[in-house]
Amino acid sequence: MVDRQRPGIPSERRPGDGDRDDPGDVPARPEPTKLIQSVQRALRIMELVGRHKDGVSAPRIAFECGLNRATAYNLLRTLVYEGYLRRDNEGRYSLGLEVSDRYSELTRAISGPKTCGDYMRRLSAETGYSTFVARFVEDRPAVTEVIEGNRSPHVEDLIVGFDDGAHATALGKALLATLQPNDRARFLRAAGMRRFTGRTLIEPDAFEHDLAVYGESGVYAELGQFKEDVACAGVVVRRDGSPSERVVFAVAMPINDIRESWQQMSARLREAAAELQPLI
């Protein structure tokens, strides 16, 4: 195994190599015995992948990490299964959601967010997904805060003040789920259920079934119902009080991402709901 010198720590000098009294000469930390090479290799793969925001292929990973292809593929398969890497349809690897979860735990341990905006900025930076907060404004579900992420498709309609298409967005579904069935039906009759895409639910019975299915987990989603190839998932942060006091939080992402990481994203959103409660 090639010995990697840690950056910022000079190598140990031998007598006769120069002035040993130089205060900048700090002996390198000796490498401990019985290191697990497979762990080191996995970490080096993740370091390499993290430097390529557009993803990197398995052959390049093997070459740059000095691994034979069989070893590289075994490690990559394991890291993808555990959620620390993700593989796209073209075979490129990028960091997975488990990495952002570990980062989130670290930042929370060091210093938690002080406002809802702080939390949204942090989550968007960690995941690359756009984050949203919505509330009832004049009895209509409306977006009230947005932080854009660099991995989410830009949806020009989903800006602060947007109050249309509640039946087709995860934000709207989560807010409407807090209403009594009669109040929800009254809202949908008044607002209408226009079709945004071929996947949009435009029948009240189908919409009610959709709410019931997602309501079991507490995470509401739409896949391409508001805009083609875009998905959104949301949770209720506050459901008590009058409708104007109710708050939901959501993220938007490419539709393939939500299909690949639904369980991790659902857990992350439920966690977000608990963390945001004291901040809203």
Structure characterization notes:
With 280 residues, the protein is α+β, with helices and mostly antiparallel strands. The protein has helices at 37-50, 58-64, 69-81, 97-110, 116-127, 170-176, 181-191, 204-215, 255-260, 262-276, and strands at residues 56-57, 85-87, 92-95, 130-137, 140-147, 219-223, 230-238, 247-254. The protein has two domains: 1-95, Arc Repressor Mutant, subunit A; 99-279, 2-Layer Sandwich (Beta-Lactamase). 40% of the residues lie in helices and 17% in strands. A five-stranded antiparallel beta sheet has the order 5-4-8-7-6, sandwiched between helices. Strands 1-3-2 form a three-stranded antiparallel beta sheet. The longest helix has 15 residues, at 262-276. The protein is elongated and about 70 Å long. The relative contact order is 0.10.
Please name the defining characteristics of this protein.
280 residues; alpha+beta; Arc Repressor Mutant, subunit A; Beta-Lactamase; 2 domains; five-stranded antiparallel β-sheet; three-stranded antiparallel β-sheet; 10 helices; 8 strands; 40% helix; 17% strand; disordered N terminus
